[in-house]
């Protein structure tokens, strides 16, 4: 009898244990699923677009240029601009305040309002400083790509290209500014640099190395001390101080310094569709072309290549056949350029 009682007690304990294990499993199962879902969701949002900071530099003298960017490569939906930032010296008037409401992130630097070295080097320092501030809240950032307000940027091509590059290495990439190399004034070393007029990208590892050299207070002073423009000084720092050479992609990044006779007039639609940037020299800085170029690329991306090619050939041939319409043009959207011509 005692044996049966012990047996029933043991059996009862086993049933209780089984019941508790079953309930524990049912209780934990939803948590496990939720945990998996969280990780899937994290990977989904961690796209290349989330890992790149896009900076566009403008000034209050040229802010009307931004209309052309909104008509072409920058989305007018501010919710899609989370990693895009405008850098300017100041906002100038109520018209421009209305224009700037189309952008989610606007940084006023308080830098000088000229187009001189001090102004440009000051803005460059603020561009780097913005990235260093952002990484505290967005530690997954891998790239900083900066552009001017007269650039067309093919975002799709930029994302595709950078997604194939290992950002855990030091990368400084863009278009070689001049054919020759500059010689450093304080040594026998020489260096090449990426023209800011074509857009430049930096990996986060290189940005970490640059940090001690590009402080807001020091960089403008050092630029002037070396007698260099902002992009040339960054090339000097990168190659001569940090021993990181420029990754030159002249096939993908295009500058306003390119001569029309050797670039745009001989481009075909493939060149147009495959490039990342155009720093605008199409008809000597008249930015009316930007929305047209965007539409050409959109037609091509939608598979309407025949239509896009016909339009492209018409535009290109028109420019060749009517040079009088493009002679001595200048950027009418910039007050500073108008002042220089008067």
- Rounded to the nearest angstrom, the distance between the terminal CA atoms is 116 Å
List the strand order in the largest sheet.
3-2-1-4-9-6-10
Known CATH architecture of the domain at 48-254: Alpha-Beta Complex
Rounded mean pLDDT is 79
Structural class: alpha/beta
**Discrete helix count:** 12
Radius of gyration: 27 Å
Helix content: 40-55%
Strand element count: 12
What characteristic shape results from the CA principal axes?
globular
Major sheet details? 7 strands, mixed
User: And the CATH topology of the domain at 48-254?
Assistant: Spore Coat Polysaccharide Biosynthesis Protein SpsA, Chain A
The CATH class label of the domain at 48-254 is Alpha Beta
Strand content: 5-15%
Runs with pLDDT <50, length 5+?
Answer: 1-45
Order of helices and strands: HEHEHEHEEHEEEEHHHEEHEHHH
Protein name: Fringe-like glycosyltransferase domain-containing protein
Main location: membrane
Family: Belongs to the glycosyltransferase 31 family.
InterPro entries: Fringe-like_glycosylTrfase
Summarize the entry for a quick read.
With 342 residues, this protein is of the alpha/beta class. It has helices at residues 2-45, 66-70, 94-100, 117-134, 155-162, 204-210, 219-226, 230-241, 269-274, 289-301, 305-321, 335-341, and strands spanning 52-57, 84-88, 106-108, 143-148, 151-153, 172-174, 182-183, 190-191, 200-203, 247-248, 253-254, 277-279.
Topology:
Elements: H1 2-45, E1 52-57, H2 66-70, E2 84-88, H3 94-100, E3 106-108, H4 117-134, E4 143-148, E5 151-153, H5 155-162, E6 172-174, E7 182-183, E8 190-191, E9 200-203, H6 204-210, H7 219-226, H8 230-241, E10 247-248, E11 253-254, H9 269-274, E12 277-279, H10 289-301, H11 305-321, H12 335-341
Parallel strand pairs: 1-2, 1-4, 2-3, 6-10, 11-12
Antiparallel strand pairs: 4-9, 5-12, 6-9, 7-8
């Amino acid at each position: 009898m005692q044996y049966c009682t012990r047996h029933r007690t043991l059996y009862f304990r086993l049933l209780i244990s089984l019941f508790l294990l079953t309930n524990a499993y049912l209780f934990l199962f939803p948590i496990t699923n939720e945990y998996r879902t969280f990780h899937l969701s994290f990977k989904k949002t961690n796209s290349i677009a989330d890992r790149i900071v896009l900076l566009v530099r403008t000034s209050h003298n040229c802010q009307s240029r931004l209309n052309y960017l909104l008509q072409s490569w920058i989305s007018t939906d501010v919710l899609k601009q989370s990693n895009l930032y405008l850098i300017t010296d100041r906002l100038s008037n109520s018209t421009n305040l209305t224009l700037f409401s189309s952008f989610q992130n606007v940084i006023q630097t308080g830098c000088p309002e000229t187009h001189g070295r001090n102004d440009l080097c000051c803005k460059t320092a603020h561009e780097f400083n913005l990235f260093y501030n952002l990484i505290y809240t967005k530690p997954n950032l891998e790239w900083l790509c900066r552009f001017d307000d007269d650039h067309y940027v093919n975002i799709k091509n930029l994302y595709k290209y950078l997604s194939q590059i290992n950002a855990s290495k030091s990368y400084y990439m863009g278009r070689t500014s001049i054919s020759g190399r500059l010689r450093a004034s304080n040594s026998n070393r020489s260096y090449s640099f990426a023209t800011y007029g074509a857009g430049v990208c930096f990996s986060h590892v290189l940005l970490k190395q640059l940090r001690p050299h590009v402080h807001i207070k020091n960089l403008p002073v050092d630029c002037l001390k070396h007698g260099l423009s902002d992009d040339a000084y960054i090339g000097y720092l990168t190659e001569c101080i940090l021993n990181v050479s420029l990754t030159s992609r002249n096939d993908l990044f295009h500058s306003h310094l390119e001569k029309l006779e050797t670039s745009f007039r001989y481009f075909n639609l493939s060149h147009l569709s495959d490039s990342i940037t155009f720093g605008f020299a199409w008809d000597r800085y008249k930015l009316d072309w930007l929305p047209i170029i965007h539409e050409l690329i959109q037609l091509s991306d939608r598979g309407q290549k025949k239509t896009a090619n016909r339009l492209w050939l018409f535009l290109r041939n028109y420019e060749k056949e009517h040079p009088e319409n493009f002679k001595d043009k200048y950027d009418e959207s910039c007050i500073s350029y108008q002042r220089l011509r008067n």
